[in-house]
Amino acid sequence: MQLEESRPALSIKRLTISGFRSFRPLEEQVLGGGMLSVGSQKMNKNMTTDEQEWSEGQNVVIGRNGSGKSNVLDAVEFVLLGPRFYTLRYEERQRLLHEGRPGAGVLSAFVEIVLRNPLGRIPIQGQELIIRRALGLKKDEFFVNRRRVIKKEVESLLETAGFNRANPYYVVQQGQVQALCVMKESQRLDLIKAVAGASVYESDKALANNALHETVIKRQKIAQVVQSLQNRLSTLEKEKLELQAYEQAIRRGRELRAAIARLQIFQAESQLETLDEAGTALAAEAHAAYGRKRQADDQFESTQQLFEARLAALSSSREYIANLADAKAQRQIKYDALRTELEQLDIAIALDQRRCHRAQRTLQRLRTETASLQSQLDDTLPPMHDDIPANNDFSANDQITQATHAVFTATRAANEAGQRFKAAVKAIQAHREGPLALARAESQTSRNAVTQAANNAALASARLNSARRDKQHCEDTLFLARREMDQARRALISNDLTSNSSRSLMPRDVFNGLETVEAMENQIGYHGPLAAHLRLVDEKYRQAIEAAAGPRLWHVLVDDDIIASKLLEHLQNRQSGRLSFIPLNRLSENGDDDTNFSAHILKHPDLVPLRTAALEEETQSSGIEKAFNLVFGSTLLARSLDVATRIARDYDSVTLDGDRVSRRGVVTGGFRDPTRSALDAWNHFANAKAEFLQAQNTLDSAQNELDAAIQNATRADKVLAEAEARRNAARRSHDAAHLDAAALADTASRLEAEKRAAVHERLATARRTLHSLLSGETINQHEEEQQQDRIASLAQTLTHDLGKRQLDLQQRLGFFVHSQSEFEDSMEISSASDENDKDIDAFDAREAEARLDRRNLIAAQLAALELEQKAESDDLLPTINSEAKLETEVNRARSALAQARSIASELDEELCDVSGRLEQNAALRAEASSAREEAALALSRRALDAVELNPNDAGRSIDDLLAELEICDSEGGAAVGHINNKALDDFLGLQDQRRDLSKRLSELDQGRDAVHGLVTGLDARKDAAVERTFEAVASHFSQVFQELEPAGRARLSLIRKVPSLPSQDSEMNAAGTTNLTPGEEALIGVRVQVHFPGDHRQVSGVAQDAVEQHQLDQLSGGQKTIVALALLFALQRADPAPFYLFDEIDANLDTTHRAALARLIHNQAHAQVNPAQFITTTFHPELIQNADAFFGISLSGAATGHKASRLLPATKKDALTFVSKATATPLHTNSGNVGAPFPSSSSMKRPRSPTSNVDDENNNE
């Protein structure tokens, strides 16, 4: 336990120098027994087999001059931020770097110290502390326990360990001891002040004096400003009164405007309420009217359908009756023809019977007469043959022949007359049938037209109903489309708010850049930010992922660097946002090199790779997987922050709470608001954006549907109008067809009457023709009689028969004339009968039999026709009755249709009236709304919302308020020209400024007093600290001087500035300190008084300054060194450091004093209280005899001019041998001994000998 307490609190264990001054780079020279690891590899080059650490006691470094001993101490001071190496310029950095071989300049160097910390003087975990300072051409890098830190952190650690920058004497270079010897009294005082920490007081005092000076200046300026403010306030007082009057008018005007606007709003709202009630009533009325209109339309359609059905039934009935009439007419014609033919056959048969009986009688008579005549002729001829010549017989025969020819001529004429009568009858029939057929065709055409018109009317009604239904459907679709569009707009607004709240967590430049890039077209190779691809296994890993990713969460993933350059160029052209890109083609397959964790890390129960634990596997793209490995592959997920800090030397780690520990020594984390998550913000933003796009598409589709619905509604209105037009046209066509049918019926009746008149006229003409023919036949009869008279002698019997036949012919002709009134064809039969009667000789019994058969057949046909006519008459009678009923129903339906049409027209007019009133109501409501909005806008624009209503304005009309407002405006306008609108603000502002400045003056006075007190207190504290430090240093100085020079005496004393006699003692002067101005220094220096053995000079009666100066000037070099070392050790004991580095401080001492110095260092190194580590360089054996560890420095490359130092361990024997040879060898240089632990005596320079021996100096004095 006692050994543990005697150890130094902090000591150097190992030292590594690379590239610093004479030490080569890339070869670490190890002091002691170890080699520090650089990175993750160990530099095993040039290691000695005898490894040794620095001793906690006294260490000695030996080597020839120029080998680099001082560079070792400079390296330590370089790491410990000594004053010479605290800040370095570029030239100084270059001088510190090793020169190296030609063409192989060194660009960096480092020095690393391993410190023992057994007592925990430096509050850091472990008993060792590793400090490295890396030197570059521009800046330095600092590492503490392999962790990158800043200079301030290293400085703080060193100050905690006891290294005071104000007392840099823990490293004593060559020349510093001599500087202490020649130091002036004021410089010694400054040194005491620095050790006492007076610089802190001085800096605070300087700051306080500056503050005091600034306070005085500010107070003067404030006093001037206050005076100017007072002058300005007196002027603004008058302007304030004028402004108050003006503001009163303005305020009254604002009250009036607010009252007018509120009254207008009230009136507009009242009007809106009235209009809303009226609009509701009108809407109900319109709804009822539309209902009645629909009922009327339905009734009209049903009535129209009934009318069309009745009309179609009537048309079919009339057509049926017309068909029956046509069939009846045809049968009647056939019946009449058959009847006529029957009558003709009856007449012909009767004639044949009479002709047959007459011919038989005539034949019998002729036979009788012939026989008689033959007998007479037989009796007469023989005698006449002689009397009558042959020519007479010839003439008689000729006359008979001529008479017969005349009869035949008359018969032929009668036949020709009959033929002309037939032709006339046929012409009459043709003239009758032509107009009748034309009328029938026109009637059928009109019937077809009426049917087609009815069909067109029905089709038009159907189309009209369909158009109305389409219009109603379009109106419903239009309403739904508008409702969906309103919903889409509300969704857009809500999504916009969500996206705004989400993107607030995203950097603005990143958001603008992403918006710009995503707005581009043809985004091939663009995958969005890394946050868009993260899929967490569980939400508990969210903070860890965000902490591990950091700003890389918003890095954009692209396929290659070409796409990245294009996107970057696009962003630069648009000057919108800034993005960082990760080209996937630049990533290796295995991701980050640090993803291969060691086995013990993977098996650790509190550690797991963050990539595999928190993120799901990316199956869509291997490039995204590589990006995940790049960002998260080298990070471990730790259970706690303690576990993370234990592995901080080798791995980056993060906890579930978002605390991140970097390999570089940076720890980040703390409280994280779980509601402000970047990943959640991105997800919300992406979802909001998707919903926004969907709502936008819905809005667009709704707008399209709305436009389509409007177009369909317009088209439906157009179709409805066209259907109405077609229905009206069909109705007009139907009415026109009915009128045409009526006209055709009249035309048919007229043609029938004309036909009958023409038939009667032609019958009369035929009768006249027949009478003329009869008159012609009479003439022929007379001619025949004359001819018969001429041939009476020859054919008396024939003439008699011809007369009878003529009479019979006349009777038959009279009968024919009597029967031709019943039927026109009887003339042909009569003519044929006459011809048959005339041709008696040509009578044929077979023809008569055929006529009889024909007559029987016609009679049968007539009987069948009569039966058919009777059946048709029976069928036609109910049809005619039903036709009458149908006509009545059609007329009734036509009346109902006209009534429904009139009702629909009235309802249309009513709907138009209601629509007009609704439009008028909407216009009035729009005007009222506009008036209310204008009044509300006037309130908000003029900021009249907060203006309270004046009770006096209640109940007043707008005209009264406007009149008063005009008066206020006129008064305010007249006064506005000379009114300072900012007078009151300026007055109040200046009052506030004056009050603030007055308060500021009092505060400055209080601050000035406080600063005076602070300066006084700082001076007192500084003086107390300086005196306290001086007392400690003076005490230690006397003690150390006694240890170095037992027979001598030495002391330190303060020199004060007091008004006293020069001969007074300093101790007496200290008691008489008076009349010092504030801030004036009372101490002006530190005096050194020493006495060596053998100095018997008397100093009484001489000024102390002169005696001291005389003594110090006349001391030898060794004596000055003793004084300087005593002061140096006194300062170190007053402000102890953990270890000390001395560079040949025994150079000017003799053997006795070197031994005393060695004992002093050895005793302090092994003291029980506050032991310290010492590292010294020397050429004398006294320090080596008491040392604990030994090191030598060899130098190679001296012949080539590229020297390289090398620090190697040695033994005490080797060190003594080296020193003994060095003191006995003349000075020369040998560069061939490169491999020896340290140069031999032949290659060493002889050390400088002391200037003189202390004893000799005493004798000289």
How many strand segments? 24
Could you describe the largest sheet, including whether it forms a barrel?
A: 6 strands, antiparallel
Which residues sit in consecutive blocks of at least 5 with pLDDT less than 50? 1-5, 28-50, 387-396, 819-843, 1060-1074, 1097-1110, 1226-1261
Looking at CATH, the homologous superfamily of the domain at 1-163 and 1143-1251 is P-loop containing nucleotide triphosphate hydrolases
The proportion of residues in beta strands is 5-15%
Shape: elongated
Mind telling me the C-alpha Rg?
75 Å
Using the 3D structure, state the CATH architecture of the domain at 1-163 and 1143-1251.
Answer: 3-Layer(aba) Sandwich
Mean pLDDT: 72
- Roughly how many Å apart are the termini? 51 Å
Fill in the CATH topology of the domain at 1-163 and 1143-1251: Rossmann fold
Physical arrangement of strands within the biggest beta sheet: 2-1-6-7-8-9
- Which percent range fits the helix content? 55-70%
CATH class of the domain at 1-163 and 1143-1251: Alpha Beta
Family: Belongs to the SMC family.
Region (Disordered): 1226-1261
Coiled coil: 219-256, 349-376, 685-726, 883-910
Biased composition (Low complexity): 1237-1252
